[in-house]
Write a structure and sequence with these properties.
The chain has five helices and six strands. By secondary structure, it is α+β, with helices and mostly antiparallel strands. It folds into two domains: 95 residues, no CATH class; 62 residues, no CATH class. Strands 1-6-3 form a three-stranded antiparallel beta sheet, with no helix packed on it. It has a three-stranded antiparallel beta sheet with strand order 2-5-4, with no helix packed on it. Helix 1 packs across helix 4 and helix 3 crosses helix 4. The N and C termini lie far apart (56 Å).
């Protein structure tokens, strides 16, 4: 829940007023009305999550769609708005070449059912009571440090922002390394 991330940010910043507001939000749940400070933090959580999805840990989606009589797939026919197309394949795994235009993909296969795999940004959360949509490698701690860095920058706390940003980047590196598949050298036979 985003509220847990904001609570983590409040403890990083040593902000007792924000910690108190987090406790109030947990108690009131649906009746809770966000303060301007909470709205700002919600904005920063969404911003950091989008940055992570675009540059480090993309969210991948696959949709089955049919090309029209001209071989076009309208981008708005996909469930999400893609920022990068990963592949276009048929159900047997055969890859199709395509041309990307602002509003559609052009294939040379009219009236064909294809699987479009693409990267898209996470949904924007409207409330601190929602769960954030992110890659499995993105942890609460990672989002908290990124959010704390953004918040500190907005308050012109340069030293704190630099500390949080450094920690944020090191957590990104750690998350990238943590899930890499180990490669073993082939055994040499004598």
């Amino acid at each position: 829940m985003i509220l847990d991330i904001i609570e983590h940010v409040a403890s990083l910043l040593g902000n007792d007023a924000l910690l108190s507001e987090c406790a109030t939000a947990k108690q009131q749940q649906q009746a809770y009305q966000m303060s301007s400070e909470m709205q700002k933090l919600l904005y920063f959580v969404n911003s950091v999550n989008a940055e992570l999805a675009r540059h480090y840990f993309p969210l991948s989606f696959t949709n089955a769609v049919e090309t029209d009589v001209n071989g076009k797939i309208m981008v708005n026919s996909l469930q999400r708005k893609p920022f990068e197309i990963k592949s276009v394949e048929d159900c047997l795994g055969n890859t199709f070449s395509y041309e990307l235009f602002p509003t559609y993909l052009q294939l040379r296969k009219p009236n064909t059912m294809v699987l479009v795999t693409y990267f898209a940004l996470p949904l924007i959360c409207e409330s601190v009571l929602e769960d954030v949509e992110c890659d499995l490698r993105v942890t609460e701690k990672l989002l908290a440090y990124g959010t704390a860095a953004e918040y500190a920058m907005s308050k012109v706390l340069s030293e704190e922002a630099e500390i949080f940003q450094t920690k944020f980047l090191s957590l990104i590196d750690f998350a990238k390394q943590k899930f890499k598949i180990a490669k073993m050298r082939m055994r040499d036979w004598v």
